[in-house]
Amino acid sequence: MSNNERIPDDHRLVAEVIARYVRAADHRDPVTMAAVFWDDAVVEIYYSGAGQHELLARLTGVETIAAAIATGMAPHPELGWSHHTSLNPIVTVDGDDAVYDSQFLVYNVLGRARPSAGWPAGSVGAQGTIVPVESGYLESTLRRRAGRWRIAKQIIKHDLPYAFPAA
């Protein structure tokens, strides 16, 4: 290894697992989502507004968690997308255990369709809207097994009331 190459430390590797998690959510990708959780993982989702912690859902096992991407999140509309973001993380690593505790924001993006006659005179830049739709806290407990970090338990605390689609 040259002097310019660095081996990522555990804090960086833990943060990368969360980055893959939020991208899997954006893409509604159950395969990528499954790859960041251990088989016996648990996800708990709460509404935490007004100082209360109301359990909304408990997902047990990687298959259930991965499937929730397809059933628990609305599909993107045409010209639409979502961006799940993780902000201000506090990362602690203790041997083969880690916690990634952060705030989160989710933005919905909706592009404006290009008119058949082209953009009107004076149009400049991105055309569409970006609207924040979710916020809260994300606490992920990760474990390293066979040299690989994955999520063992995740607690999602929404600031806003949250409705799940009917089964």
How do the helices and strands line up, and which of them pair or pack?
Layout lengths: L9 H18 L2 H6 L1 E11 L6 E7 L1 H10 L8 E15 L2 E15 L16 E18 L2 E11 L9
Parallel strand pairs: 1-6
Antiparallel strand pairs: 1-2, 3-4, 4-5, 5-6
Structure, described:
About 15% of the residues are buried. The protein is an alpha+beta fold. The N and C termini lie far apart (about 55 Å). It has a domain at about 10-75 and about 85-105 and about 135-160: Roll (Nuclear Transport Factor 2, Chain: A), CATH 3.10.450. The protein has helices spanning about 10-25, 30-35, 60-70; strands spanning about 35-45, 55-60, 80-95, 95-110, 130-145, 150-160.
Features:
167 residues; alpha+beta; Nuclear Transport Factor 2, Chain: A; six-stranded mixed β-sheet; 3 helices; 6 strands
Largest sheet: 6 strands, mixed
- Class based on secondary structure composition and strand pairing: alpha+beta
The CATH topology annotation of the domain at 10-76 and 83-106 and 134-158 reads as Nuclear Transport Factor 2, Chain: A
How many strands appear in the DSSP assignment?
Answer: 6
Strand content: over 45%
SSE string: HHEEHEEEE
Assign the CATH architecture of the domain at 10-76 and 83-106 and 134-158. Answer: Roll
How would you describe the oligomerization state of the chains in this entry? single chain
CATH class membership of the domain at 10-76 and 83-106 and 134-158? Alpha Beta
Helix segment tally: 3
Distance between the termini: 53 Å
